[in-house]
Amino acid sequence: MVTVTIHGEKKQYEQGTSFETIAAEYQKDYDGMIAVASANGKIRELFKKITRDCEVDFFTMGDAVGHKTYVRTATMLFLKAVHDVFGAETAQDTRVEFAIGHGYYVSSDGRIPATGENASRIKARMEQLVAEAVPFKKRSYPLDEAMELFRAHGMKDKEKLFRYRMSSTVNVYEIQGYYDYYYGYMLPHTGYVKWFDVMAYDEGFMMLLPTQKHPDRVEPFREQRKLFQTMKDSTEWGKKIGLETVGDLNDQICSGSMSDILLIQEAEQERKIAEIARDITDRGNVKFVMIAGPSSSGKTSFSHRLSIQLRTLGKTPHPIALDNYFVDREKTPKDENGKYNFECLEALDVKQFNEDMMALLAGEKVELPEFNFKVGKREYKGNYKQLGADDILVIEGIHGLNEKMSYALPEESKYKIYISALTTLNVDAHNRIPTTDGRLLRRMIRDARTRGTAAQGTIAMWSSVRRGEEENIFPFQEDADAMFNSAQIYELAVLKTFAEPLLFQIPKGDPEYHEAKRLLKFLNYFLGMPSEGLPNNSICREFVGGSCFNV
């Protein structure tokens, strides 16, 4: 018998009892479906068995680690269904590309026609497997055997990934003869995947899954065509230069050809910035360029580079930060926890902003404010502006795309830009990299460098940051005139060398420890790349340091 402590209560269980058995006993105490366990601070899959005394807690689909486990399991279920319905070769060529909201775009290079009938066939096979509650079997293979296994199954992307693996073993999952590899945890059997849908979309399919916020249902799919096309274009560009997976990137680093890749990526981003600048000037009557995007998207570097391109076209850009229109601290709204909510629209003096912008549009000279964050007050220090014929205001802030922010400005005078770091590089064909991971690593490195904030602090506040983005930025992204992807295909190899020392400092037992371990495991796939070769105007420089811009 072993002693298990749960919620302060000690209970005796037979040695070898599964976490799933114990979870069933305590499920009534949790709001959502339990997905994984924690034993003495270490995440454990529910099919694992207890071998010694331990303190146990559980994570549900409403927790980040539980939700990721559900998505991962549903993904393998989807691919198993493709394998069964369309054959092994088709499954080999099927790729989980990227996420659009709660939809996960899956393509097969045209091997499966994107029809409603085929979507129904995949869904029906998934439902059959769910009804059968087929167990996911996990086995640790020696590295060479794992590489041979996936080579035999035509999964060369995984073989390439493992070539750079430091560990001598690989955990492989199997379901009814279908083998796959995933970085992260899996649910015990297919019966846990209760909520999903499949629909034909573009040239592939959308696998629709519950969100972390609403883990027990599938929300209707919200069309985001501009975002989808931006992600798709970036994915296609990666294919053209031969960089689709982490294994591809590691190959390039080893071959010594990263200097060319780096220059190609920077040139591609500069080309897109130049196209946006040309579109702005071609419209003729744009006086306000409104830039918005989630945290750590590289908005500041982008606005500087856009301003340079506008200058080459004869325009005179002037940067304005919406943060300078914060209301005085004592007037700032508070959230449900009694803390200042700096991310809501009401934290800004929207009326004053519109009055100032309309006065500038009318040709008047206006003194613009500067917010003093130390004392929490708006100040006026003689920063006067008056717009000439070729002057353009480049306005940056999280509410830039919200019409309520610029309600008084004529529509034809505004040009809206949405910017985000939309990672399209994948670990392998079936393991996508969430765009939020890249932004979290960017912010962690910048916070440590510029604010002295430990990685714990950045991780601890990340859920709050993400909540603010969901409320104030993402609902308006499709209203943008242009979208810009600031993610650089090489950047995670650069960020690795800066992020790892910060993450290793988080001690076991801290609430942020599990997330730190997950990120360290993720970064372990990458070979490190030095930052010395980055141009000083690179967006990556905004985070690792050395930028020629004031960022």
Query: For the terminal residues, how far apart are their CA atoms?
Result: 59 Å
- CATH superfamily (homologous) name of the largest domain: P-loop containing nucleotide triphosphate hydrolases
Domains (count): 3
* Number of β-strand runs: 21
The value of Rg in angstroms is: 25 Å
* Gross morphology: globular
Helix content: 25-40%
Q: What CATH architecture label of the largest domain applies?
A: 3-Layer(aba) Sandwich
Stretches where pLDDT is under 50 for at least 5 consecutive residues are none
Q: What do the pLDDT scores average to?
A: 96
Class derived from helix and strand content: alpha/beta
Would you tell me which CATH topology of the largest domain applies? Rossmann fold
With helices defined by DSSP (H or I, 4 residues minimum), what is the helix count?
Answer: 16
Strand content: 15-25%
- CATH class value of the largest domain: Alpha Beta
* Major sheet details: 5 strands, mixed
Strand order of the largest sheet: 2-1-5-3-4
